[in-house]
Amino acid sequence: MISEKMAKMASGGSVIRAIFEEGKRLSAIYGKENVFDFSIGNPSFPPPGSVKDAIIDIITNEDPMYVHGYPANSGYPEVRRAIADSLNRRFGTAYTEGNIMMTVGAAGGLSCTMVTLLNPGDEVICITPYFFEYNNYVTTPGGKVVTVPASAENGFMPDVDAIAAAVTPKTKAVILNSPNNPTGVIYPADLLRKYSDMLLEKGREYGTVIYTISDEPYRELAYDGAEVPWMPGCVANCIVCYSWSKSLSLPGERIGYVVVPSDIADGQLIFDAEVVANRMLGFVNAPSLMELVVARCVDEPTNIAGYDANRKLLYDGLTALGFEGAYPAGAFYLWIKTTIEESAFVEKAKSYNLLLVPGSNFGTPGYVRLAYCVSPDMIERSMTAFARLAADCGLGK
Ligand code: PLP
């Protein structure tokens, strides 16, 4: 018999992946053009041309023993330096390659960070609604997820008092994700500073250090010129997990990095342990070719305009039908109220071939998440189905 924990997990699986697979099944029956799959956060634009150019140039002109050999477990020093330099230009920091470890996406960075920080029984606070994979990253080294609801009245911003009330002597870390999946909210600098002061105060009270893990795969996805504050500039003891999965449309290439600033508590020890975790978890190192590619594309802009057009199209269409939700400031998700009981809403939607992810899959029932990293054409065609759903839910009368 395999591990009891894994047997349980294998029978559960990922809800989002299951909906995505259901989309493929429905497409085979009804035709791809009649299925409206808003389930998964797979970017809808190809990577920019500079990524392809870099790949071709590197595999044509660089030494294959360098390109395909093992880099250091932390990544090629020159790649890490290029990333540190880019962050320094943008955020006025003074990082070196000694602060950057290349990772297998943000997921790899989060997993290494949890293994680095957590003793069994340590608590990690997650703000609901949240990306449910955090449960796996936290529980694998024996940690425990403690949830704190974001304030719905306050547009799903973290509630600093509620987080303070959830901190215990066992709290090791808080995971923040801004721009947020699933709400699209961006946390402002003044809120982050207040949050940081609170954590420092709690740490003094309990004689502990409470780290903040800033999960930032959507950092570049901010609309209308909204500023995404550099989290370690506002929050003490902050470790950043970044990836190019969304910003450069490279989710399958599994490439990202962790920033461990030098001035956080036990900074050098944490960095060294992150590198060990990269090996221990079997990643060994981030993919070598992709490390070299992203170093050349480090200042490449993200296709904000494309996602922004989708954001407007979907939001305007749904609100005109009577659906309620906040206009997202970042990422590529729309978070709307279900108006009727959540599972009935999701099932009704499915009967019109609309595939939406239930809010309970983010720890917040009564909502659905729509990923608008899809074709604008699909958004337009889906509106007839949404109109039927709205009518079934008594909206727009
Ligand atoms: N964190 C959040 C909030 C995400 O939405 C995702 C992916 O969708 C990840 C982390 C994992 O990203 P990556 O592909 O870089 O591992």
Automatic annotation (TrEMBL):
Gene3D superfamilies: Aspartate Aminotransferase, domain 1 (3.90.1150.10), Type I PLP-dependent aspartate aminotransferase-like (Major domain) (3.40.640.10). It comes from the Bacteria. Keywords: Aminotransferase, Transferase. Pfam families: Aminotran_1_2 (PF00155). CDD domains: AAT_like. The keyword Lipid metabolism does not apply. This is Pyridoxal phosphate-dependent aminotransferase. One of its GO terms (molecular function) is transaminase activity. Residues 34-384 form the Aminotransferase class I/classII large domain.
